């Protein structure tokens, strides 16, 4: 991220947080089942680092993701308002990162095909509340919402630069995505107050500690994103191994899971392509 944009990004983040807190648009109803499909190497990274990788918007494949729609641009022009450049939007969005999950009661054949580049891979099965509660990184408040799939020619996104990250084209609606968002400078003050009190931290030290965490929130672990600490036991309900994987690979996953202190009983091989008829 370009820290010369730090103050500008901070202002946009404050505006977004206000929108998020007072809008039902973002609320996830109930406690849906969610999945994360990944390669062997990404799964190994999750276990090794005890952290979820949040990717920067600059890694998105779709160039329209995180931008204004044609509808928005038309509205700007009709209102004679200055249109924010795409370059500026991307500079600001570099202060954020996202983690993408698939909402579905059942596993998805399409997701296996989309996210695996070989026969081998895994899918983390959990639920929304467990996912949110698993995150232990005190540097960030985690924003969560169902992605809105729209017609970029005839529907609006948002005028807030971070808010646009929750909109995608209808062509991607099959993903049924739950998106988690972190933004540098956004800490969860209410949660931190509860934690500090439980830790017995003197009240007069709270503000200084929060300032330290806010400053640390700008330190992303990678150029393409950021590792965000999580509790694996809370996060992982079950670990599905690809239906195309060999028994040897299933055993390798079980051994790896035990190595990192998790129960091997969480590991199951998908029977998606099993013939049940005869």
TrEMBL record:
It comes from the Bacteria. InterPro entries: DUF2971. Pfam families: DUF2971. It comes from Saccharococcus caldoxylosilyticus. This is DUF2971 domain-containing protein.
């Amino acid at each position: 991220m370009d820290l010369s944009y730090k103050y500008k990004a901070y202002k946009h983040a404050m505006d977004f947080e206000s929108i998020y807190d007072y809008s039902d648009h973002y609320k996830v109803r109930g406690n849906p089942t969610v999945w994360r499909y990944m390669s062997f190497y990404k799964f190994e990274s999750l276990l090794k680092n005890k952290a979820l990788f949040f990717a920067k918007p600059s890694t998105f494949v779709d160039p329209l993701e995180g931008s204004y729609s044609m509808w928005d641009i038309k509205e700007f022009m009709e209102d004679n308002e200055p249109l924010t450049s795409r370059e500026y939007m991307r500079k600001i969005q570099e202060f954020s990162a996202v983690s993408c999950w698939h909402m579905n009661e059942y596993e998805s054949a399409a997701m296996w095909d989309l996210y695996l580049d070989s026969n081998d891979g895994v899918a983390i099965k959990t639920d929304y509340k467990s996912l949110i509660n698993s995150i232990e990184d005190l540097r960030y408040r985690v924003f969560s919402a169902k992605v809105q799939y729209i017609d970029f020619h005839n529907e609006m996104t948002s005028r807030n630069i971070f808010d646009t990250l929750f909109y995608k084209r209808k062509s991607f609606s099959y993903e049924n995505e739950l998106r988690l968002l972190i933004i540098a400078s956004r800490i969860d003050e209410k949660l931190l107050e509860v934690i500090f009190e439980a830790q017995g931290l003197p009240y007069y030290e709270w503000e200084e500690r929060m300032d330290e965490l806010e400053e640390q929130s700008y330190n992303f672990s990678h150029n393409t994103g950021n590792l965000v600490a999580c509790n694996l036991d809370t996060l992982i309900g079950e670990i599905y191994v690809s239906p195309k994987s060999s028994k040897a690979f299933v055993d390798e996953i079980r051994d790896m899971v035990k190595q990192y202190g998790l129960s091997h009983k969480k590991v199951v091989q998908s029977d998606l392509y099993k013939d049940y008829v005869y």
